[in-house]
Amino acid sequence: MVAARLVSPPALTAVAPTETERDLDRLEGELKKLEAEYNMFFGGRLSRPPWETRARVDALVKQFDRIYIQNYADRFRFTTIRSRYAAFTKLWDRGQRAREEGRPGPFSSAKVATEKPRPAPADVQILHVASFRDPLRETEKLRDLYDSVVEARRTLGQEGVPFHKFAELVKGQVDKLRTTGTEEVAFRVALKDGKVSFTARALKGAKGV
Question: pLDDT, tens digit, for every residue of 129-171?
């Protein structure tokens, strides 16, 4: 009989990150730092916006925009970071304008409702109400509604949700309730029993012509 030989598996060798991966790590780290600094600014812990950190992030994004990233995973990662940064800058700029004008903004503790809410039980705190006929054509109202949900979840220590998924949820609810004959759907963001409540209802009498 021939003795069987045990073959040891090849040793795993750590692969050093590429220069692009290191640059993306740096960009991601700077963006996280920028987000934290803006949260501190709107929370009153910084006296002015973090312009220096934002300038560094902006320069890194533009640097990547000028080159072609060959690796698909790296290219997808950068696209995700860039989209996230673009969404954040719009939110931060809106918050800054609202602060300068002395009106409630996306970082206010409570939003001004765009529709007069119905009376609610004492244990329900209504934060925002908005109605839609076509959410994809009413992007400003959709963004305000999204901001109120994110802020409410952040207040409770919960993570936010991606804007595109939120938009799909709202559109899906509008499409579903429109099958009942209504053309307009109202959404309400509230705090109830220590949780974020997000509800949708068809508006009576809101039918198409």
Answer: 888 988 888 888 898 899 888 888 887 778 878 888 898 999 9
Q: How far is CA 27 from the centre of its chain?
A: 18
CA–CA dist 200, 21 (Å, integer): 43
Question: What is the Cα–Cα distance from 149 to 138, expressed in whole angstroms?
Answer: 17
- What does the block give as tokens for 61? 């994004």
pLDDT in tens, 60-102: 999 999 988 888 888 888 888 888 888 888 888 888 888 887 7
**What distances in angstroms separate CA 135 from CA 120, 199, 200, one per listed residue?**
25, 15, 13
User: Do the Cβ atoms of 147 and 91 come closer than 8 Å?
Assistant: yes
At residue 5, what are phi and psi to the nearest 5 degrees? -105, 135
Q: Residue count of the chain, please give it.
A: 209
Non-local (6+) Cβ contacts of 3 within 8 A are: none
* DSSP H helices in 46-138: 51-65, 72-101
Q: What is the DSSP letter of 125?
A: E
Contacts of 43 (CB under 8 A, 6+ apart): 107
